[in-house]
Amino acid sequence: xxxxxxxxxxxxxxxxxxxxxKNALPWEPLKFLKTYLLDTVPELxxxxxxxxxxxxxxxxxxxxxxxxxxDLEIYNDEYYFKGxxxxxxxxxxxxxxxxxxxxxxxxxxxxxxxxxxxxAYFSKGTQIRHGSYIRGSVYTGxxxxxxxxxxxxxxxxxxxxxxxxFAYIGDSILGNSVNLGAGTKLANLKFSKTIITxxxxxxxxxxxxxxxxxILGDLCQTGCNSVLQPGTLLGKxxxxxxxxxxGPGYFLPGTKIK
Length: 258
Prior knowledge:
With about 260 residues, this protein is mostly beta strands. It has one helix spanning about 30-40, and strands spanning about 60, 65-70, 75, 80, 85, 90, 95, 100-105, 110, 115, 120, 125-130, 135, 140, 145-150, 150-155, 155, 160-165, 170, 175, 180, 185, 195-200, 205, 215, 220, 225-230, 230-235, 240, 245, 250, 255.
């Protein structure tokens, strides 16, 4: 069985994680995401507290230096230390990191009371908002938003994907510029806890996964309080209207689920 990645993702080669998708079915990168991140993500500097809430807001420079945020000067949203312009990520007081295999590119912001478990990689400009719960094996492209009280595990966000409010994203892939409406749930486990199978082009496909959420192609959108059942694949530019239950199965690009 072959289902083209082009039905879901454009410009896949622009993502740092693109190699995981080479010659793969759309859901297969989820099988290897944790190992890939463990192999590629460097450890945090020893100055970053692990296992306790960060006691004061910190600036983690692109070179790996850790500086108290209060020691920096800010002009036009740019940061300076001892007169020198620096780039890096901001870790706000109260955020909790449970391990060292976590990487933050520049302009990442981790807001208070978010919890992040390794392994995880956050690309430039990602926002990890107040109270988010990141349970490990998570990759984000640039300018991603993981919002207030949003829970994520074993998932990939391509650049500019947003789950800004009260979402659950389990074992899922969000394409470029996907937007999840408030309260969207990407369910990842059947009641029977059996392997997830799909029907694609009248062919039954065994995914080999007991836990699989949704694959949302580029520019997909979900309305508030929508639910995507385990094993839902939305082709690019598809919409799920507010309050709808969608899937399982494959939906062509441009589908509108009302």
